[in-house]
Amino acid sequence: MRITAGRLRGRTIPFLNRKYGNADITPQKVKEALFSRLGEELRARPFLDLFACSGQIGLEALSRGAEPVILNETDKRRFMFIKSLVQEWGMEEKTLVRNFRARQCIRYLHQKGIRPGYIFIDAPYIKEKGPVPYYSDLLNFMSGSGILEKDSIIIIQHYSKNILPEKAGTLTLHETRDYGTSSLSFYAPAEEL
User: Fold this and answer.
1) At what angle do helices 56-63 and 28-38 cross, to 10 degrees?
2) Are 49 and 72 in contact (CB under 8 A)?
3) Under a CB-based contact definition with an 8 Å cutoff, are residues 119 and 142 in contact?
4) Would you tell me how many other CB atoms lie within 10 Å of the CB of residue 173?
């Protein structure tokens, strides 16, 4: 995996998937589509990668100007990998690397007064056709958490046959883009997207 744009462009993330539980890694075409949609420059806004895995999405966001970048990973080994890589690259001042469950991370950000402009959610895929309550529950929790700005964008990467809610609390689904078996769904408060 490589950083494809920005100040860290060309750096390799030496993540050996088989060593870290064979997680689903965001495919290159999905990553390119995500950042094409968000824009090249993320303009010094906080970016939360809630299920960071290898750290590639959060580090790409950091490279493109997001700051600070919160890389949260529940798996201890993956968390240690990301933490070590951030230290090796000298990016500790621009990142927060945490080892929390999703809701715990959101509460932590609220306590710290951090309100991300962008939130990327690539939870372990629930490969089911139809509605997935997990996403509705998480979106509703985020809606009432106090961490969202009026123009925050929440992006969920999910299995393409999942059906996500049109509304969850104050959040509205604005679009879903499909890329094979993966999809990106974009949420924002009210009519911001």
Assistant:
1) 40
2) yes
3) yes
4) 18
Q: For strand 95-98 and strand 47-49, is the pairing parallel, antiparallel, or unpaired? A: unpaired
pLDDT digits (tens, 9 = 90+) for 48-92: 999 999 999 999 999 999 999 999 999 999 999 999 999 999 999
What burial letters (b/e) apply to 54-86, b meaning 16+ CB within 10 Å? Answer: bbbbbbbbbbbbbbbbbbbbbbeebbebbbebb
- Predicted model pTM: 0.94
Evaluate if residue 9 carries a pLDDT over 90: yes
Chain Cα centroid distance, residue 40: 16
Largest CA distance in the chain: 43
Q: What local confidence, expressed as pLDDT, does residue 190 receive?
A: 74
Residues 101-129: tens digit of each pLDDT: 999 999 999 999 999 999 999 998 888 99
Measured distance CA(41)–CA(90) in Å, rounded: 21
Q: In whole angstroms, what is the distance from residue 72 CA to residue 104 CA?
A: 10
Altogether, the residues listed in the chain come to a count of 193
Helix axes 102-112, 133-143, angle to 10 degrees: 10
Q: Exposed, middle or buried, 136 (CB in 10 Å: 0-12/13-18/19+)?
A: middle
| Cα dihedral sign, 188-105-54-93 | positive
